[in-house]
Structures are given as C-alpha cells and as structure tokens.
Amino acid sequence: MADPVKLSLMTGNYPNTQPLKSGKVTSPLVSFDFAEVKIANQHFKQVVREAKYDVSELAIVTFLQAKTYGKPYVLMPAVAVSRGQLQTIAYDGERGTMSPKDIAGKKVGVRAYTQTTGAWVRGILQDDYGVDVNGITWVTTEDPHLAEYQDPPGMVLRVADDKSIPKMVLEGETVAAIVGDTIPDPRLKYLVADHEAANKRFAEKNGGVPINHMYVVRQSISKERPDAVREVFRMLVESAKQGVQPGTEMAAGIRFGVDACRTSLEKIIDYSFKQKLIPRRFTVDELFDDTTRNLKP
To answer: Of 204, 230, 249, which one is at a domain's C-terminal end?
Structure first.
C-alpha cells in the first residue's frame, strides 16, 4: 500500500465541500491541511503567484491564464462553483430603464477585467444580445491574479482599489456594473430583466450551468503520486454527493469528469480568447494531464 500523504488544500465553504472540510469524508491515503478561507477568490493570487497550495479551487479564467504563463498546476475535472451569470450585471433604475444594447460604447464596472464572471457575462452579452463588448470601457478596481498579464490597452480603465463598484453606478461614473450574485442596493436593477429564464436557456444550449471555479493540483504531485490525485478526486465527488441536494441547480452545476465539463470549458476558452484574456484557444484535453484527464466519478 502506498504511503499516506498530507496535502494543503484551499477551497471555500460550500455545501459540496462541507462534508470534506468537516471530516465526514476521509481517506487512509490522503489527509488535508485546510487553509482558513472566508472568500476563496481572495486566495487565488497566492495560488498563481506563490504556488502556495497542493490542491486548490481556482477560477477557470485564472487557470487558463496560469497555463498560459507556465504555472505549476494542472486542472482536475471537478467543479467547485458554477452558476448562471446574467443576474450579476445591474444598472441604476432611478436613471431610467436600460437593456443590454444600451451599454454599448459606455463605461461598465467590473472588479477585474480578468474576473471569470466578467468573461462569462461579456461573452453572453456579445453572443446572445449583440453587444460589442470590445467597444465598452471596463472600469476596474483590481489588478489581474496573474502578475504577467496586462489588460488590453484602450479597453480597461483602472481606478482606485477602494472605489465601490455599486457606488460608481449609483453616482453615474459607469452606466452599469457586474456587482455580484446578489444585488446590493434596491436602486440597482437587472440589466437582463428575464435573467432567470435567460440563464436557463444558456445552460440548455451550452453544456450546463457556466463553470466559475474548478480544482487544480500541483503538477509534481499528479506526476509522482497519481494514486493520491485519484483519491482527492474521489473525496471531492463523495463530498458533493453528501452535501448537495439532488435535483437542485447546484447539483446540476457541480460536475465531475472531462466529458461533463467539456462543452462549458470550450465556451469559456472561446470567450477568453476573443476577449484577449489568453493568446490562443486551448483544447479542453490539454488543460489536463494523463492522470487528471482520466478521472471519472
């Protein structure tokens, strides 16, 4: 029997991770040193700039950029977070009614141009609503997770990092903004009025609920201890089975295996290339190695 291994793991506190983090899902082969996490995306820079964790949740666009710049991680076909995206973009309803076409050529706020939610929203607005997202000025308060990446010139306006994105909308500095999964002020209104139906249509046409975060593992571990990687995957699958209610939107979004993730990954790769987030279109299969490509639930 192979020697047990202890791995550092960074992941958020979700229904699909709670059984793992609480110790309900265990293994004689793998144990974890869990990072203390309140908001997972606040740790992503440590992953791609410091290679701090052995296994980590990571935004999919951040991973695509990490692969571009040769960071020492490989993707696992395991979704940590997914969701519909169109409820995240809002405008000030006290200034009149807006629809997606009304943001063309204007300023729109987003935490960072490289944010995965932003990439999904821009791609959907362009494909499904005919919005020229490259003609919009994207007003950001944060730099990219990858230090090597430079925002596209002429498309991104960086402002002070203490600026409030919702406040910029309400004060008229931007006409709209990606404000997060929950509208933070009653004056803000959804840019896509039928966002729930639109999210459902998109998922039905494009391989499921859009993927926000997946898991990555250190390349050296995947090469030297494929048995441990297979066990980590098994534990993630088991944790999701125990923690997520069957038949819910979350259950539909938390997917395992390359085939289950393929269409959604193809879409975000395409969006990332068109938005100048990555220099070329990766194939889905090259995101994985021989160990992780063959992981199946």
So the answer is: 204
Q: Do both 106 and 48 map to the same domain? A: no
pLDDT tens digit sequence for 85-99: 999 999 999 999 999
Instruction: Let me know whether 200 and 119 are in one domain.
Output: yes
Q: Tell me if 247 sits within 8 A of 253, measured CB to CB.
A: no
Q: The whole model's pTM is what? A: 0.97
Domain that residue 112 falls in:
86-204
The predicted-structure confidence for 204-227, as pLDDT tens digits, reads as follows 999 999 999 999 999 999 999 999
* Domains of the chain: total: 2
Q: Is the pLDDT of residue 1 over 70?
A: no
Examine the domain organization and report whether 123 and 197 are in the same domain.
Answer: yes
